[in-house]
Structure formats: structure tokens, C-alpha cells
Amino acid sequence: MATIKTIGVLTSGGDAPGMNAAIRAVTRAGIAKGFRIKGIYRGYEGLINGEIKEFTTEDVSGIINRGGTILRTARSTRFTTDEGMQMAYDSMQKKEIDALVVIGGNGSLTGAMEFAKKFDVPCIGLPGTIDNDLYGTDSTIGYDTTLNTIVECVDRIRDTATSHERIFFIEVMGRDAGFLAQYSAIASGAEAAIIPEDRRDVDQLEEFLNRGIRKSKKSCIVIVSESPKCGAMYYADRVKKEFPDYDVRVTILGHLQRGGSPSAHDRILASQTGYGAIEAIIQGQRNVMIGIRNNEIVYVPFSEAIRSDKPLNKKLIKILDDLSI
Ligand code: F6P
To answer: What is the dotted CATH code of the domain comprising 143-258?
Structure first.
């Protein structure tokens, strides 16, 4: 296997708070261990276009506290084609990049896996997504910050919900996973969560309403995982139709969930996994995501990390049910 002298780092897919802390960790740990580090802008698009700059330790100064990603990001469709991948590979050759660290979610790590297979390029992944849907790591970079942002928003909405005695359906992100919805519902004391992993309530809207509002509660918060067909609007419309007496409102939190300064937890996770990526390269690890499980760094093969069935702890569904009476 060829010696690795230069490592390229990129962020890809949806940005997540803590990505900058991860870029900083990869850059500084890499330089400390004698590698050259090159920042690749706009994810795989920038790799294809050769938008690449060598980083010094100063280039990543003052970014650990900043949301978003200084490298910018993109969802590259070109990189999903043979032609695009070939251009990305050619660009790596031209810029003398021997290995890649990819910070991103499911789609980005799937891209890294395909690329590594096709061109035998060493790729290491860092779990960077607010969705927490990567298998094999307890948490992903950005998830904790987003969870806290949601809880802060729900606390605010509860003030007005209580004052007006209204039902609020609050839609949160998560793509196909219900982590953000389920955990934010528990943390904010919501009456219910509607998540993809537990569709038992899809046709039992009445159960939500009975669970609280018809007894003693005059207001109610339901957190709904985003969904093209049955998001918060869908439920609100149904309640309005079936229970016209209730005063119903909808809040879609949208992209405000993705911004903001990363929490201490996300900064530490990003620093540990970023540092771990460089150690993994030195140890000869290839094509794995660096995760943390039970406080230990773990190497998760890409194929395992991108499995779509990261299990949500089902006990939390029961806990939310029982605590929201
Ligand atoms: O994967 C992160 C995420 O924020 C998802 O929760 C959401 O479904 C999606 O990205 C939104 O993507 P975009 O910013 O491209 O609209």
C-alpha cells in the first residue's frame, strides 16, 4: 500500500454544528503527526472541480465554536456518476492527495464507500449529521446541538400554547429517523411524538388527544418527524377536520435546527473522532467511520455505518407515553 503523505478533508451533505470542530481536529492532529492537510471546498463537488487549499494550523483557528462548515458543503449528484467519480479521482492525483477524511451523513459515507471501492483510495468517515442515523456510533456530530435547539424552541412554543390553550404540532427534521423527534419530545415534556419507527399512532389520532388534553390538560404539544406525506400539517388538518372544537396550530422548525454554535458535547465528539481519524490512518485502517460507543473510539465499516436501521431505544416510547399523562 502506498505511503500516505497528504490527507484531504471535506464536509458533505447537510451541514451540522460541530463540523468545524471536526475540520480543526483533523487538520491539527494531521499536521502534528507529520501529514500535509488539504481542505476540499463544497464537498465532492469541490473535489471534482479541484477547489482545494493546503491548510496550516492557523487556517482552523477560532472555528471550534462556529456552526456550519468553513469548507462549505454540497449534495453532489455528479459524484454519484462514474464520470464524476473519475474526475474526483483525477483531481486527487493532480493535487497529490493520498487519502480522504469525509465528514458527513449517510449519503456522504455511501459516496466515500463507493469511491474507495472503485479506486482503492483510503477513505475515513466522520459521522457528521444532525439526524443521528448512522449505525455503530452512539451519537453523531451535530445531533446534540440540534436536539438542544429544538428543546429551546419547544419551550417557547409551550408558553404560547398554554396561554391560548392550543394544540401545537411541531415538525422537526431527522430525514427517515425519529431520534430528534423522540428525544426532543421527552426533553421538552411534549404530550406525544410521531416518529417513523413507531407508526402505531398514525391512524389513532384520538389517542393523542385523549392522552392528556381531554382529561386535565388544556394545551398539548405533539412533535412530528418530518415526512413528505404525513408531517405536522397532515396531522393538524386531520384534527381540525375531526375535532373542530380544538384550536390547532403548526410550527415547522425547518433549517433553524441546523445552525448555531455547537454544544460542548458535539465539540468534544468532533475533536475525539477527528483525532481518531488521523490515528486510524496511521494504524492502516481503511474505509471505516470513526464512531464512539460507550465512550470508546470504534471503527465501523462503511457498509455497517450506512445501514438504515439504527435502532431507536423503544423503551423511550413507553417513557414518553407514561410521563405525558
Ligand atoms: O440530513 C440532514 C437534514 O437536515 C435532514 O434532517 C433533512 O431531511 C435534510 O437534511 C434537509 O436537506 P436540505 O437542507 O438539503 O433541504
So the answer is: 3.40.50.460
